[in-house]
Design a protein that fits this description.
single chain, alpha/beta, TIM Barrel, 9-stranded parallel β-sheet, two-stranded parallel sheet
Length: 286
């Protein structure tokens, strides 16, 4: 499955109120040459239905879930939905799955043992009436054990809120072959104060979540960096802001560190689809 070098990661492609505008935006992104369109799990809902809307709107781009929670989407239903979409649209759906957090596990009546839980979920995908092929699924992995599991049992991994240094470490764990597709938040704005404020507005809730906070601490950030929505040091490290050339340098840094693909999330101060930002970023699609 060819996701090319860059893609667009967008909650708006699920949340925007007008399905016609989503269709038109997805078609434009596809025509501009982005290799994949990524949609987040957002706490559940009909993510495969939202993926189908994007598959219907596009001809070439892979549509990737980045990622659906194993606690909110039963494996048998996920496998059946994947098989239906593969039959209808070909091999263009990349199924990203993740263990979410302890609260999601408790709400589902599960035990939050990430490695074992994810291994069991993959077993169920393999045992389904129409299994999800390993090359058409990937894993959200923030630590070395899950990263190694991703390399063994899936196409690769899609880490969230990471630096190029993390990418280099993940590549060392994965080896040369598997897909490594980090999420990269971007703000198309050259004003430092405004760009950082825009970034904090989106990222502050994630930085406050235990599993993401622990990942950032493992990456070398301090407790002080995580306070008050994130220090300038933290924001600058995990968000690429500035003009398209500056953002392109961060994308290149991930690729130089071993990324196969970088999923760009354009964070905007406005509401609705960030069409202006996507059009500014279009040179990076190539």
């Amino acid at each position: 499955m060819d996701v090319r070098r860059t893609g667009i990661w967008s909650p708006e492609l699920r949340l925007h109120h007008d399905p016609v505008e989503i269709h038109e935006a997805a078609a434009e992104l596809d025509q501009r040459g982005w290799g994949a369109l990524w949609i987040p799990g957002l706490g559940g809902g009909d993510i495969l239905g939202d993926a189908e809307r994007l598959l219907r709107a596009t001809d070439n781009a892979v549509v990737a879930t980045g990622v659906l929670s194993i606690w909110r989407h039963p494996a048998t239903e996920t496998a059946a939905g994947h098989a239906r979409l593969r039959q209808e649209y070909g091999h263009r759906l990349l199924l990203g799955v993740g263990v979410s957090d302890a609260a999601a596990a408790r709400a589902a009546g599960g035990n939050h043992r990430p490695l074992a839980a994810l291994d069991d979920y993959l077993d169920l995908l393999d045992a389904a009436r129409e299994p999800v092929p390993a090359e058409e699924r990937l894993i959200a992995a923030m630590g070395p054990k899950l990263t190694a599991l991703a390399g063994r049992r899936s196409a690769g991994t899609h880490p969230f809120l990471v630096t190029p240094e993390f990418t280099a470490g993940a590549r060392a764990v994965l080896g040369a072959g598997p897909l490594l597709a980090p999420y990269q938040a971007v703000v198309v704005d050259t004003d430092p104060a405004r760009a950082r404020a825009t970034a904090r507005g989106f990222l502050a809730p994630f930085i406050g979540m235990g599993h993401y906070a622990n990942s950032l601490l493992r990456q070398g950030f301090s407790e002080e960096d995580l306070a008050a929505g994130g220090s300038d040091h933290l924001i600058d490290a995990v968000v690429a802001w500035g003009d398209v050339d500056t953002i392109g340098k961060r994308v290149k840094a991930h690729h130089d560190a071993g990324a196969t693909h970088v999923a760009l999330h354009a964070i905007s101060r406005g509401k609705g689809l960030p069409l202006t930002e996507w059009r500014h970023l279009a040179p990076l699609a190539a």
